[in-house]
Amino acid sequence: MFAPRKIANNYREMINSIGFYPSVLSVSFLILATITVSIEYTSPISQLKDQINVLLVDSEENARTILSTLAGSVISLTVFSFSMVMVVLNTASANLSPRVIPGLITKKSHQLVLGFYLGSIIYAIIMLINIKQMEDYVAIPALGVLISLIFGLISLGLFVYFIHSISKAIQVDNVLNDLFKHTKKEITDVIERQKANPINEFPEFKSWHSIESTTEGYFKGVNSEKLCEILAQEKIEIYIVVNQGYFTVKGYPFLKCDSDLSDKPELVEKLLNCFIFYIEEYISDHYRYGLTQISEIAVKAMSPGINDPGTAVKAIDMLSILLIERLKISDINYSFKHANKYPLLYIHETSFEELLHDNFTPLRNYAKSDAYVMTNILEAFKNILFTAHENEQATVNLFNYLTAIVDDINEQTSNQYDRTEVINMLKSIQRISPKKGEILLKRFTDKI
Question: Which of 36, 95, 148, 184 would be a feasible disulfide site paired with 124, CB 3.0-4.6 Å?
Fold first, then answer.
């Protein structure tokens, strides 16, 4: 029953593994070595070797020495590089957030470098075992030795690049910038899709028929191409009730359908097999994961062992920009794949209020005694309000959360200088929204 889903999950785990690209490149180099050996002694290659004779080895001893040295040297580079990867992952987990590790592991440039190392080793070993003693001469794959030497030189260059790249990958500013860039891109993609196919009215989902989950786990995505193809064939529509990334259990009604499918278990199974459940969080699946990772880096920066409020403030500023972009997205997303006039698949987006709670609550709790960080949180909310003051629902959500922030500051901040800074920030908020800002300011000053 779950074979298609298991195959999809295994495929995802495989392509996101740190060994995927190295394995592919290793096989490619093995094939290349086999081809090289098979054409080494053909007439065209022999003529080519005559023209570049100065670059080729002419003795068995030299060939074995060169190939053995190359293989051993690249093995050393590979071991050191893999060790560096482990150090980076441990450091990222300890100083940033464990959630950023999947993104670092799947960084293609690092995997390609490691794959090139492994491929170069395999190529050199294949050439080494093809140095054979014939009846009256020694068969030396001279062209293969030259190519191995070239691969070895390239590996040295890649090693320098790898050290430079891996050292940058662990710097918190670079991690934050990458997360911000990728998250903003995912949000922008959703905005553009909705602008291309705008919808003003949505169906009444409450009257639709529920479909229960047959598995437990974190709902991380859906194969929309396959699902919409089935929906178009069956002429039905589906609404995903739960937010992407939330944990579901067996029997939970996480889907709604405009038709009753209780008498069509095979169709229900086909639909459910299109949904993806796994643990890792990749920004490419949903922009919400990028917001969460940025928020957790800010929380980690405020821990006593790290104590880096500057990083926390930078993360807060990034969150404010991303939340401003999020306001442009409808709370219900949809897909027009295989659809003509109306979408076939509706997706419940994480609401603006939920994003505020999920991303600022941990930070508010851990940093509420730090007046500098809390003042910058107020400034971030001021910037969001400046953009969203005409959005009534978003303004209500922002002020509801600002009330919680002000209460925390009141409880934790007694220094008059810090309180004056907070009052100045609240006055800036009041200029954007006079009535609600006045209530907020009065709430803070009344407790002096």
Answer: 148
